[in-house]
Design a protein that fits this description.
Protein name: Cytochrome c biogenesis heme-transporting ATPase CcmA
CATH class of one domain: Alpha Beta
Radius of gyration: 18 Å
Bound molecules: adenosine-5'-triphosphate
Strand content: 25-35%
Keywords: ATP-binding, Cytochrome c-type biogenesis, Membrane, Nucleotide-binding, Translocase, Transport
Distance between the termini: 35 Å
Order of helices and strands: EEEHEEHEHHHEHEEE
CATH superfamily of one domain: P-loop containing nucleotide triphosphate hydrolases
Oligomer: single chain
Shape: globular
Low-confidence stretches: none
Structural class: alpha/beta
InterPro entries: AAA+_ATPase, ABC_transporter-like_ATP-bd, ABC_transptr_haem_export_CcmA, P-loop_NTPase
CATH topology of one domain: Rossmann fold
Organism: Colwellia asteriadis
Length: about 230
């Protein structure tokens, strides 16, 4: 009898010995971890502990004091081809969706124009803006100027990008801010679906991700004492 084997998930991203210093304060030191297809990783820690700094390093928007971030590149035909994100910047950006504190939504444009703009800029998903509008529950608001939306509706307009993207690596800074209970559970369902189709998510949130607890939810904890836990 042949022993059954579980196929090994592919490695999408690898952080190697990341050290981050801000204003003479060591936020984290020699932080290493791997992110596989199907992983959902929650970065947690108190305010100011370095969560956003870590996410920005993972996107390539800022540089670590030491260490590097590698991703699975298809630039050569090797099966395992981890490359520095700084080396194949353009290819990495095509694999990445970053949702930061700034929404990227233009107040002087309508909801529909913003969604179309997203598609033109990043987008790729055949379902297009009509489906994204339904997914974020903004039907009927498509002609509203974004500047006239409530904080939650504004955030939902920004979050439509998640439904419009085919990028495998999602890095999301506080995606649940201003989102109501139904919206939170819709997002959790979206995260699960993304992980199940082989993507990965690295996010910060102070939200208890109870709906994701039985999945491949992992946690990276940063704290002021510079003791860094990864489990
Ligand atoms: N570009 C920068 N220049 C100087 N200091 C910075 C910079 N970015 C962040 N910091 C400092 O680094 C520390 C960590 O900031 P960061 O935003 O990463 O924390 P955080 O854990 O995401 O916080 P929060 O939970 O409040 O969002 C803070 O003390 C902040 O002032």
């Amino acid at each position: 009898m042949t022993p059954s084997t579980t196929p090994k998930a592919s490695l999408l991203l690898s952080a190697k010995n990341l050290t981050c210093i801000r204003q003479d304060r060591l936020l984290f030191d020699a932080l290493s971890f791997d992110v596989f297809a199907g992983d959902i990783i929650q970065v947690e820690g108190p305010n100011g502990s370095g969560k956003t700094s870590l996410l920005r390093i993972l996107t390539g928007l800022s540089q670590p004091y030491e260490g590097q971030v590698l991703f699975q590149s298809t630039a050569t035909h090797n099966k395992e081809n981890l490359q520095a994100i700084t080396r194949y910047r353009e290819e990495y950006q095509q694999n990445l969706l970053y949702f930061g504190h700034l929404s990227g939504i233009k107040g002087e444009m309508t909801v529909e124009e913003n969604l179309n703009f997203n598609i033109a800029l990043h987008g790729d998903n055949a379902d297009g803006q009509a489906q994204a509008l339904t997914n974020v529950n903004l039907m009927g608001f498509e002609d509203n100027l974004a500047s006239n939306l409530s904080a939650g509706q504004h955030r939902r307009t920004a979050l439509a990008r998640l439904y419009q993207s085919n990028a495998p690596i999602w890095i999301l800074d506080e995606p649940f801010t201003a989102i109501d209970k139904q919206g939170v559970s819709d997002l959790e369902a979206l995260f699960l679906a993304h992980a199940q189709r082989g993507g990965c998510i690295i996010l910060t949130t102070h939200q208890d991700l109870s709906a994701l607890a039985n999945t491949q939810l992992k946690k990276i904890t940063l704290d002021y004492s510079n003791d860094i836990a990864f489990d």
